[in-house]
């Protein structure tokens, strides 16, 4: 009996040896085609749980496969290291964010190494280190130069618990903070924005990239492009200069049905238009809505309310007086901050009109409408009525006709509106890259000169949840001199959204040590774009969206020559345990360290691929992983116990067994290869299990000669190498093969050998030859009989006869006896 499979021992040994030999060192000048396989880098939260492994182990398997296929593979790893949790830990436990983060990096690196991946650690990227964030700041300056970064006073989502501004994407559910669940409120602050809206249209295109349809749909919805018409309503108010209020609508065909208009409470006209008797009520409403987050205001659950401000606009189409209301569901930052209300043909307006007893005239007739009141809003197309010269026009045509009419008179114009707004990147926090800007009383806003980068985060800061950046209280940091006029000046004290850091890290891997630029242009030209990017679908509208914007923007600045960062995107599913998502509070978190210590990293890797289709995810199950462990133990024993061929087998039987083994082996190569290309990793594992079963039978019977046996073992090990790198390296060595299995090429299959063998089946009727059929050698008796009865050349001899018997001689003939 061979030595027992001892994963802990062999895994440590090989990890050390591979590191010493720099087996996975990646070269930039290599004649082979390149393959850039990237996994979303983890946030430095402290521990890698099994969910991380589910993201990173299968992608390592795929990258290893590409490596064996002859590609020069870059599969790097790094850490997303700035952000709130580090600072919260500092406040809670009095540990410096840098110390906390770097301790976590250390631990996570150790865990990642235990996985046995092909990471070239000399390319590691850590976003909180000055040699990295110096370039994040540099990109910010480039955006500023290109007019893509600007400062503006704007209402922001504010988490009173985390004491920071949140991006819209970080506000979840009914308006609570993504991190701590506290209800989000609003505040006005001077903020830095990136002009992502300039790329709205291009961000909806996915030319030449292979992305999941649902991610594309989510991103397109995020951009929220709609074609419509901006309509001018007349304003004639004593003491107000403005002579119109413009609204955006996708339904200009309903304009005759407008019975009120709604302004955002913070609309600049509100105070000037409000009549004295409404003043108190309006002011109270404006104050109330200011305390609510946008998400709360837009919630579909909430009943819509509002206040009439005592003023009117004029519907130019019919000269009607339109009462002006304010309501918090209208946001100043969306469109024009004003909407026209057509209660008969919009659900929200209908409910609002019912609540406040406003008229609901029908202007688009539903099919069969008799002129009565509507029970609910009719939002489908119909025939225009009560619409002057447009009556009897189908509403789809009315959209064009009314728009044209308005445009001719200068009362409106066709336009496009977007839901997407510019990317707010200012954070009132310490643990982030400082925004490299200086404010001078004489010169205004002055960018930090490039040669002065990085603007270092000072080590000493007071971590108190004050609602302002801790940097604000650090005089040494704040006080500086103006780079232009040398007068005393002050630094920007906000830091950047960490999504800035993760929008370009994949460029840095190409030349991580470059200290004269963010990246070496030649190397980025060689490695980028990323060929396969894998990660969770939860990043659909933040990271993946921002990274695409970033790449398009720096392309236009002239730094790179491509516009999409990730050619193919693959989203893995989630590993659950005990029927629910793993979480510390539920106590159902699976820690990979325990399983690695007990069963080995290879078993965990193989199990994670076997448990479910990768894109779907599945449930962690201890008996499932035990089954995988038993399988790998069988592989171990199969490869290491001596094979002895059956000396008494006939040449015929031996030939047949050899043909059978080579057929199964080549079929396996084909299936495993195709599964890897399609990233169907669970069926790849079951195919390898089947091959193992087949080899176990061959071993029992000794049916093939030793060299055939050796060849099949050789192929099994190579096919298994990406999945279980340590086990296969050990077996490769123990069976006398040349180090390293990971430098071997991927096996090729011979298509002819994958085919089932064919034989000629003779069909007789009453013993006379009537037909010959080519069939698979593995045909069953039932299949052979059915096939014979259906042959055109046989049928005439069966007509009007009774079948008395069918005799089947396996592999030879079918004889149909008729009466
Ligand atoms: Zn919070
Ligand atoms: Zn100055």
In terms of topology, how is this protein built?
Layout: H1 7-21, E1 34-39, H2 50-68, E2 72-74, E3 78-79, H3 84-93, H4 97-114, E4 125-126, H5 130-145, E5 149-159, E6 164-166, E7 171-172, E8 176-177, E9 185-194, H6 213-223, E10 226-234, E11 244-249, E12 260-263, H7 270-273, H8 279-290, H9 294-298, E13 306-315, E14 320-327, E15 338-341, H10 347-355, E16 364-365, E17 383-384, H11 395-408, E18 412-417, E19 423-424, E20 426-427, E21 437-440, E22 444-447, H12 475-478, E23 479-481, E24 488-491, E25 495-496, H13 498-501, H14 505-508, H15 521-527, E26 530-536, H16 543-557, E27 566-572, E28 576-577, E29 580-581, H17 592-599, H18 601-610, H19 622-640, H20 651-678, H21 681-701, H22 706-720, H23 725-734, H24 751-754, E30 758-765, E31 768-776, H25 781-789, H26 795-798, E32 803-809, E33 813-818
Helix pairs in contact: 1-23, 3-4, 17-18, 18-19, 19-21, 20-21, 20-22, 21-22, 22-23
The structure holds zinc ion (2 copies).
What key phrases describe this protein's structure?
single chain; 819 residues; alpha+beta; four-stranded parallel sheet; four-stranded antiparallel sheet; 26 helices; 36% helix; 20% strand; globular; binds zinc ion
Helical content, roughly?
A: 25-40%
User: Which descriptor suits the 3D outline?
Assistant: globular
As a whole number of angstroms, the C-alpha radius of gyration is: 35 Å
Low-confidence stretches: none
What small ligands are held by the chains? Answer: zinc ion
